[in-house]
Design a protein that fits this description.
single chain, 258 residues, alpha+beta, Arc Repressor Mutant, subunit A, Chorismate lyase, 2 domains, 7-stranded antiparallel beta sheet, 34% strand, globular
């Protein structure tokens, strides 16, 4: 089944249901990612505290704390009686900071929209079966998607899910929301942990065509398995990012010996 998906109107997605990250920080991170990726244009109005508290279903105090973070980062300007506006000078770049929180990945995936979607069921490849804890050849759902932002193709994704999980979601839901967000919002598949491997690879002909790069162009390649709160594998995904658009930031510290 192949479906061409028209870009949906941009709207607020449910925030990740996490007890580790404060709500104001989730909102600040989500808005910062959207601003940096160009979803909110420089100089555009985000709204006032009342508008944003209604959109995110949180208190005005929570929104005030989130906007304070964005203001300190130089991403927004708050104008009395008018509201909050995106700063005029924003660098449209994207970077990943590896800090070990699934919440940050949930924030990152909300910055793009799906414009191509393909779904099928197939025998599980042997190199995927171990990730999903299923037998090789048993049926799984495979999703293939292209997500874009204001700057163009952002990521080509190939997801593998157990059939009882993959059959839950209509194409319209996957086009409108991120798959991770949908999984996390369902109590039966609430996210508990994940494992991720990051490397570099060259684009094959199919991925190059999807991402509008030359065959052999350098890509950031990510393989990720996520688990429910009870440890069940929920999905295994391969993600291909244009290498020119991404960087990885890692916080370093000295070891303290006692």
């Amino acid at each position: 089944m192949t479906k061409k998906i028209q870009p949906p109107s941009f709207s607020e997605a449910p925030l990740p249901q996490s007890s580790l990250m404060p709500r104001y920080y989730q909102i600040a991170s989500l808005l910062a990612a959207r601003i940096r990726s160009g979803n909110y244009a420089p100089g555009s109005r985000l709204g006032n505290e009342v508008d944003l508290s209604r959109a995110f279903h949180v208190s005005r105090i929570t929104i005030r704390s989130a906007l304070a973070i964005l203001s300190l980062q130089g991403l927004v300007v708050r104008r009395r009686a008018l509201g909050t506006f995106v700063a005029d000078l924003i660098e449209p770049s994207v970077s990943f900071e590896l800090n070990g929180f699934l919440d940050d990945i949930l924030v990152q995936v909300e910055t793009a929209r799906t414009i191509f979607y393909e779904s099928d069921e197939l025998p599980c490849p042997s190199d995927v079966a171990g990730e999903l804890s299923v037998r090789p050849g048993s049926p799984v759902v495979r999703l293939q998607r292209l997500r874009v932002d204001q700057s163009g193709p952002k990521v080509w994704l190939v997801n593998y899910l157990p059939c009882d999980v993959g059959r839950k979601y209509a194409p319209e839901a996957i086009a409108r929301w991120s798959l991770l967000g949908l999984l996390d919002s369902d109590p039966a598949t609430h996210l508990g942990s994940g494992r991720q491997r990051i490397s570099a690879c060259g684009a094959d002909n199919n991925v190059a065509r999807r991402l509008e790069v030359s065959p052999g162009a350098p890509l950031l390649f990510v393989e990720r398995t996520v688990y429910s709160t009870v440890g069940r594998p929920l999905e295994f995904v391969r993600l291909y990012y244009p290498g020119s658009r991404y960087s990885i930031a890692v916080s370093l510290s000295r070891m303290i010996w006692h």
